[in-house]
UniProtKB/TrEMBL annotation:
<protein>
    <submittedName>
        <fullName>Family 1 extracellular solute-binding protein</fullName>
    </submittedName>
</protein>
<keyword id="KW-0574">Periplasm</keyword>
<dbReference type="GO" id="GO:0019808">
    <property type="term" value="F:polyamine binding"/>
</dbReference>
<dbReference type="GO" id="GO:0042597">
    <property type="term" value="C:periplasmic space"/>
</dbReference>
<keyword id="KW-0813">Transport</keyword>
<dbReference type="InterPro" id="IPR006059">
    <property type="entry name" value="SBP"/>
</dbReference>
<dbReference type="Pfam" id="PF13416">
    <property type="entry name" value="SBP_bac_8"/>
</dbReference>
<keyword id="KW-0732">Signal</keyword>
<dbReference type="InterPro" id="IPR001188">
    <property type="entry name" value="Sperm_putr-bd"/>
</dbReference>
<feature type="binding site">
    <location>
        <position position="87"/>
    </location>
    <ligand>
        <name>spermidine</name>
    </ligand>
</feature>
<dbReference type="GO" id="GO:0015846">
    <property type="term" value="P:polyamine transport"/>
</dbReference>
Length: 352
């Protein structure tokens, strides 16, 4: 009797463990666990992939690259696909957290725009394939900031913008715009240039209303501030909510960012992961995803399938000449990144 109860208890524990593992990202040959940003894929495409491949999709989300990397590095949770940003891919490569892609299983990569391939964070795209891309720029309320054309980062220093500007809470972004406004690279490691950028940023402080994160979308849509520095995808959402807003990429240059699909070391269904990446690179799927999410697709063939009002909008699909002034964030190393954070903290403390 006692032995029977022990066996039953053991079986129940096995079932419970399997269920927990599955909910936490356990994958096998017939399941695929995807780790992505929230609301960053059309749910209908996941259903379509399941129907076409016979593979069940388990979709989990993260809210920062750091949180995603930490969970993958810990290794207790299985993920077959992840969608990190450019600098995070570089770090994951260095820390041996990624599986090299089998290009033979990704024939649809031929549809990707060559301009978005072979970036510094992943030379030859050995570990990643582009998913979405965008820029960092200025969004402003045309009714609240009359007669300011906003073509340059230097417009943020105009005295008439006192207490009107929202800055994104990011060291690379804010230090980068300071560097760009002076004609320097946003990846500069030159101490004299960094100090000059910091001093110039301090001169902007009377204009800075707040340094915030996701709140920018709510505040700008609600006419709580006249100007903000934000990413193009976030800007697209704000423009949908408030017709008085406009988004521009400053002429001096800015950040060109990427979110790419990768296969983490935790993957159990590597073949299924390749099938999913190739599925998302199919032009009609990439176009559908871009329409749903609202971010720019790197898929050249997919752009041709988008409605003209989307593909011809140069705020979010700028021409190649404009892209020449944009830079991807380099992985500057822990020491230099810490220095950027220190300088940014000094700027924030100076405001107070």
């Amino acid at each position: 009797m006692f032995f029977g109860l022990v066996v039953i208890a053991a079986l129940l524990m096995m079932v419970l463990t399997f269920s927990l593992n599955k909910s936490e990202g356990y994958s096998g040959g017939n399941t695929l666990t995807i780790y992505n940003w929230g609301d960053y894929v059309d749910p209908d495409l996941l259903k379509k992939f399941e129907k076409e491949s016979g593979i069940k999709v388990i979709y989990q989300t993260f809210d920062s690259n750091e949180a995603m990397m930490t969970k993958i590095e810990q290794g207790g949770t299985t993920f077959d696909i992840a969608v990190p940003s450019d600098y995070a891919i570089s770090k994951m490569r260095e820390e041996n957290l990624l599986i090299p892609l089998d290009k033979a299983k990704l024939p649809n990569r031929k549809y990707l725009n060559p301009r978005f391939m072979d970036q510094s964070f992943d030379p030859e795209n050995k570990y990643s394939m582009p998913y979405f891309w965008g820029t960092l720029g200025i969004i402003y309320n045309k009714k609240m900031v009359h007669d300011i054309p906003f073509t340059s980062w230097n417009d943020l220093w105009r005295p008439e913008l006192k207490n009107q500007i929202l800055l994104i809470d990011g060291a690379r972004e804010v230090m980068g715009l300071g560097l760009n406004s002076l004609g320097f690279s946003l990846n500069s490691t030159d101490e004299a240039q960094l100090q000059e950028a910091l001093m110039k940023l301090k001169e902007m402080t009377p204009n800075v209303k707040a340094i915030v994160g996701d709140e920018i979308k709510i505040l700008m849509a609600g006419n709580e501030a006249g100007v903000a520095v934000t990413f193009s995808g976030e800007a697209a959402e704000m423009l949908d909510q408030n017709e008085d807003l406009e988004y521009v990429i400053p002429k001096e240059g800015s950040n060109l960012w990427f979110d790419n699909m990768v296969i983490p070391k935790t993957a159990k269904n590597v073949d299924g992961a390749h099938k999913f990446i190739n599925f998302m690179l199919k032009p009609e799927n990439a176009a559908q995803n871009a329409e749903y999410v609202g971010y720019a697709t790197p898929n050249e063939a997919a752009v041709k399938l988008l409605p003209k009002e989307i593909s011809s909008d140069e705020r979010f699909y700028p021409d190649l000449d404009q892209l020449k002034n944009l830079e991807v964030y380099d992985n500057l190393g822990k020491k230099m990144l810490a220095h950027y954070n220190e300088l940014f903290l000094e700027f924030k403390m100076y405001r107070k």
